[in-house]
Amino acid sequence: MDISDQIVERAVEILGEGGIIAFPTDTVYCLAADIYNKDALAKIYRVKSRPFNMALPVIVADMEQMKRVCRVTPLGLFLAGEFFPTGFTLVLPRSPELPDIITAGKDTVAVRIQDNPVAAEIVRKFGRGVAGTSANVHGKKSPVTGEEVLEQLYGNVDLIIEGTCQGGIESTIVDATGDKPLTLREGAIPQKSIDEAYKRFQQVFQR
Known about the structure:
This protein is of the alpha/beta class. The chain has helices at 5-16, 38-48, 63-69, 74-83, 100-103, 117-126, 146-153, 191-205; strands spanning 21-23, 30-34, 58-60, 88-93, 108-113, 130-134, 159-160, 172-175, 182-185.
């Protein structure tokens, strides 16, 4: 997937200015903002009509960025090695530096690493994680094209980047804060794969 340096630079600039952008991911289109800008995060909630008691997921470029937003448990580290970067999201203990608005006041945060080259390059160039939630009005179908984003969020997004979503299915969300993985939402990664990965984790770490 080709994307010009100018578009990436513009996306990074808008994020740095507290704006919100939409770009394709390896699952569905994403609405993104700086994880440390409370006003930008509040704008995402308003644009999506998303209840403020629903936390926003975080997209990071790599494990280094990931460790800045959460505490990576042994199980979380293993599952990250098994499934990142794919349509897979980990719930882990949050960093105290994250604003409460992004975690909805909870002590956990949902984190993922992108396989989509557009999303990955933007987050990498931005230099820190972004809030990354599906670019739809709450309760409506998650968009997989820029046109579908425009139909739902017209006039409320500072930049919509055209591209292709590889999957079209939301990510699987797994809570790895405990000793066993707890699937909160089955999506792109089937439950069978999670179960098999946990068996491998037990063989390595729980002998």
